[in-house]
Give the backbone structure.
Amino acid sequence: MTNIQYPMCICHLKFDIGHLTFVYMFHSARLKLTAWYLVIIMTISIVFSLGFYNLASKEFHRIIRVQEFRMEHPGATILQPRKFIVRVPNIQDLEDANNRLKHLLVVLNGIIFFATGAAGYFLAGRTLRPIQEMVSEQRRFITDASHELRTPLTSLRSEIEVGLRSKTLTLADAKKLLGSNLEDVISMQSLSDNLLALTKDGQKANRSQMSDISLIEALDSAIKRLNGSIKKKEISIEKGIDNLHVLGFPENITELFVILLDNAIKYSPEKSTISVIAKKRDGTVEIRVIDTGGGIPNEDLPHIFDRFYRASKSRSKEQVSGYGLGLSIAKQIVESHGGSISAESKITKGTTLTVKLPSHEPFS
């Protein structure tokens, strides 16, 4: 039984159709929200116009009645204070003024209608933009996660199918197959753990639940976890961290160092040095992880903290494993602790990742 391989164009076609459906859905929602803006504002405008016209019309009719009374009783006088004595226009002038007022209110409401439509459409777009960005990010996250999971699953399935079809499978071959399958399972488990980390709330954590953390202790813990990778490439870690402390969650700060060091180790040549320097500046602790790798191209640098983004192969001479989630998780950890993270890089010179966290003075 053979596997059906779908052409790449079909996958792109499905994505394009889904994207067009997504765009149509938000355009429809924007039009509906604009319509609601129009209904609300035009209802207020029409009610106000009718009220104003009703009052003005009553005044016009009162003046008309006065004029008609004077025409029917030429000798009669109406006592009014001097300041209110004005020339009373004839009946035709009053009716013309009433009609002009009616026409003016209709035109005014028409202008309000079109102005409100344009403004409402603009405001609807601004209102829906955060939701659109959130849904777009969610769709992209699901698509990328599915794509990354598909590779180890396909490999796992292919190896199992080949093994089942083989009539001469030996115990040694079976063990080799299981070992390869185990690597794929570990890879998927690592990916799922990273995905779970990314789904956590990215807002600032509750400071009351944080504890005092020594950066040198967190760095030493991270180095121990990466000891295998460090020895394999004979990397030297140069530590320039004084007795600095931050407020946070110990496991998260240790994980932050693990991600930053692991990223530097992957892209550093063998027998090179990675420097970790921390200094206190203006109430913040600035941590810099400096490697001497191939550097990151300028076109890749703005995207290295995006999920599933991996820089071009020019950064490293060898194929580097990973899913492009590490720096995204690092950014989330930093921002949840009220800090910021940035990167500087020069081709063939290396990369510097800079983390800024609020400093904390431990109680003596």
